[in-house]
Design brief:
Number of helices: 0
Oligomer: single chain
Helix content: under 10%
InterPro entries: Amidohydro_3 (IPR013108), Metal-dep_hydrolase_composite (IPR011059)
Structural class: mainly beta
Organism: Cetobacterium somerae ATCC BAA-474
Protein name: Amidohydrolase 3 domain-containing protein
Shape: elongated
Radius of gyration: 14 Å
Number of domains: 1
Distance between the termini: 31 Å
Low-confidence stretches: none
Order of helices and strands: EEE
Number of strands: 3
GO molecular function: hydrolase activity, acting on carbon-nitrogen (but not peptide) bonds
Domain Amidohydrolase: 5-49
Largest sheet: 3 strands, antiparallel
Length: 51
């Protein structure tokens, strides 16, 4: 599958670059965003950090 078809949505069989955070940065006060911590990161569908 060409790279362009593996980007844009999170679906089975597609690569994922994403970060899972311990808080929803869209709902917490802006002055508390600096406290948010990553729980997991994925690059090209591979877990690169897992807390």
């Amino acid at each position: 599958m060409e790279n362009g078809k593996k980007l844009g949505t999170v679906e089975e069989g597609k690569y994922a670059d994403l970060v899972v955070l311990n808080e929803n940065i869209l709902t917490i006060p802006k002055d508390e965003i600096w406290k948010v911590k990553p729980i997991m990161t994925l690059i090209n569908g591979e877990i690169t950090y897992d807390n």
